[in-house]
Amino acid sequence: MKAMIAASMLAIALLVAPGVVLAGTHQLSLSPATALRLALTPGAGFPSLRGAAEFQTQGTQSEFQIEIEHATALAGQTLQVQVNGTTAGTMTISKRGTGQLTLASEHGQTVPAIAAGSTVTVLTGTSAIVATGTF
After folding, report:
1. Which CATH number fits domain 33-134: 2.60.40.200, 2.130.10.10, 3.30.310.50, 3.30.1490.270?
2. CA distances from 75 to 49, 80, 132 (A)
3. pLDDT digits (tens, 9 = 90+) for 13-35
4. pTM greater than the 0.85 cutoff
5. What residue spans in the chain does CATH classification 2.60.40.200 cover?
């Protein structure tokens, strides 16, 4: 009977305040999530390159991830990843021509501020554009 009453009270609370979930005596606010994705456009010197970037945030947590593939001409090189003209990090291209950079605030990493209209640029060590994109 107590379980039935507790379940009914929880259902009523969710109907009255759908953005709040009761957990014991604490209230947890559910923040809306944001997710932005883009397909990268290869630079002139890398026409077969493919890549994508994604930015996600929920509450105070955020994550930025970028991946490229079909970049065997760049195998072994370390590429610079810029967001809005500021270096966010680097990635090293594998023998198979793939590279990835993931930055997550939950791991104490600095995630760049990204919104619709933000730009991403991947550069070689000599500043040649490998790929670009806009969220």
Report:
1. 2.60.40.200
2. 12, 14, 19
3. 444 444 444 344 444 555 678 99
4. no
5. 33-134
